[in-house]
Design goal:
With 181 residues, the chain is of the alpha+beta class. The protein has eight helices and six strands. It has helices at 16-22, 24-29, 32-36, 41-64, 78-81, 86-97, 100-106, 146-175, and strands spanning 3-6, 9-12, 110-117, 120-125, 130-136, 139-142.
Length: 181
C-alpha cells in the first residue's frame, strides 16, 4: 500500500481519488511543503533534481567565484537556493510562481475520473476544473505542475553549465596569477 505522509495526515494514494483527497489538508493550510508529497513522481523528481543542481551551483560559487560575485551564480534562483530540502524548494518555487492560485480556485469534490491511459487519469471537480493525476511505483500523484517544474529543471541545468564554465574561467585566472574580481 502506498501512503502519503503530509504533515500529520496519512492517506492511501493507491487510487487517483484517494491521492486527490490526500492533498485536501495541504489546501486547507495553504501549505506548499505539504503539497510536495502529493505531487506525481515526475514532478517530485524534477524538484529533487533542481535541489541537487542548486547545491552544485552553491559548491562551485563558494569554491571558485569571487566573493562579491557568488550571489550572481544563482541568477533568479537566489531565493530558492536557500531551500533546506526538496519540499522547501517546491514551496519557495510556488510562492514565486503563485502555484496555489489555480489549485485553490478549482479544488473540490471529484465529479468524474476519466482514464487517459493506465497510469494517468483526469479528475473533474465540482468547481469545473480538471486536474491530471498520474501513477508511478503504485502511487498516484498530482501532475498539475509537471511541465512547469520540468522547464524549471532544464533552466537550472543550463544555469549549472554556465556556472561550471564561469568557475573554470575564474580558476584559470587564479592559476595564471590574475586577480579575480
Amino acid at each position: 500500500m502506498a501512503v502519503l505522509i503530509a504533515g500529520c495526515v496519512t492517506t492511501d494514494t493507491t487510487s487517483p481519488d484517494g491521492a486527490f483527497a490526500a492533498i485536501a489538508p495541504c489546501m486547507d493550510k495553504r501549505d506548499m511543503r505539504c503539497l510536495y508529497f502529493g505531487l506525481d513522481r515526475e514532478s517530485q523528481w524534477s524538484v529533487q533534481t533542481m535541489h541537487r543542481t542548486l547545491g552544485k551551483i552553491r559548491v562551485l560559487a563558494l569554491r571558485s567565484y569571487p566573493e562579491n560575485m557568488r550571489d550572481s551564480a544563482y541568477g533568479s534562483w537566489r531565493h530558492e537556493a536557500a531551500a533546506d530540502d526538496p519540499p522547501d524548494l517546491f514551496a519557495r518555487f510556488c510562492r514565486r510562481n503563485q502555484c496555489m492560485a489555480r489549485l485553490v480556485r478549482g479544488f473540490g469534490a471529484v465529479t468524474r475520473a476519466t482514464p487517459v491511459h493506465s497510469d494517468m487519469v483526469q479528475i473533474d471537480t465540482t468547481r469545473g476544473e480538471r486536474f491530471e493525476m498520474s501513477r508511478a511505483d503504485g502511487r498516484w500523484g498530482l501532475g498539475l505542475y509537471r511541465v512547469e517544474l520540468q522547464q524549471a529543471k532544464i533552466h537550472l541545468l543550463d544555469r549549472l553549465r554556465q556556472v561550471e564554465k564561469n568557475a573554470r574561467e575564474y580558476d584559470q585566472q587564479r592559476t595564471a596569477g590574475v586577480e579575480v574580481k
